[in-house]
Amino acid sequence: MDRRTFVASLGVGATVGLAGCVIGDNGDESGEDINVGMVYSSGGLGDESFNDMAHNGVEQAEADFGISYQNAEPDSPADMNDYQREFAGSDEYDLVCCIGFDHVTDLVQNAQEFSDQQFVLVDAVAETEDGDLVENVDNYVFREHEGSFQVGHLAGLLTTMEFDHGGASTASEDPHIGFVGGEETAIIDRFEAGYIAGAEYADEDIEVSTAYAGSWDDPGTGQEIATTMYDNGADIVFHAAGATGGGVFEAAQSAERYAIGVDDDQSISAEGFSDVIVASMVKRVNTAVYESIESVVDDDFEGGSVEDLGLEEDGVEAVVGQDFEGELPEEITDALVESREGIIDGDIDVPEET
């Protein structure tokens, strides 16, 4: 089946309406006076993953609404406070989008100080010391473990069979897969926990190797870790490591094995590795950014709220890589439809911690 049919078969056909977010062929210029400040996560743009997904969201808002925006790319979490305050202290910005959980500590303080400024926080929740939501911050969080379960299920099924496509193959005698994280955080732990649970759902005897690079922007270390995993028999390695994941793809090509991308459909955003990227765990950060900007354009921004997005809300999704459309065995695609429905219906309990 083709890619669109596969996506629809997983029950996510509505994703086109959610994530495409196209208002009309000529756009809607009602936001031409709206200016947005974008403060990205450390690692910046060009990661072909988390930050670039956020940038796609603001670019789509620019195209559809005519808004203007300014990017700020922190070299480290220490720079985030300065960028937040720079945007919030100016009268020019109607919305400040803070991309990544590293923003939360500074944002809680700055949002209360600049109480007339509208903020959006992606990947964390801004709360006061009393546990109350900060009134001028709209928060977006994701149930990453649900989508990670799906790609873990895929990897677990694939490693238990002989599969050869695009010059790569499953080659180990024993079922074995890997996971490479960036920094060890609660969010990445959800990725890892879901992935392992999905693999064990496919076959409880699958070996899962895990390691952390300690950085979001170190492809060399990512390649080194993944190479070791492939050398030790892993057939597929899933990364949740930002730009570090580029090294995982390098290792997959060299080993002629498979990889799973993250945040964006990396078979497209990192197209040079599409021959080994069997799937990606897409996390719709672009939707969070787009919808928050749209709320400002429509004058219905609501701070002090939390948007919690998982499989049911199309906030996360397992997407088959473009070179593997229609190439996966039907038993795998059918099993993924089943596990997706099971998660949404509550029949499959996905852990959030390893």
CATH superfamily of the largest domain: Response regulator
What is the CATH class of the largest domain?
Alpha Beta
Under the CATH scheme, which architecture of the largest domain would be assigned?
Answer: 3-Layer(aba) Sandwich
Shape summary:
elongated
Oligomeric assembly:
single chain
- Helical residue percent band: 25-40%
Largest sheet: 6 strands, parallel
Q: Could you tell me the CATH topology label of the largest domain.
A: Rossmann fold
Number of DSSP strands? 14
Number of domains: 2
Strand-pairing-aware structural class: alpha/beta
> pLDDT below 50 for ≥5 consecutive residues: which ranges?
1-27
Name the strands of the widest sheet in spatial order: 2-1-3-4-5-13
How widely separated are the two ends?
A: 35 Å
Strand percentage: 15-25%
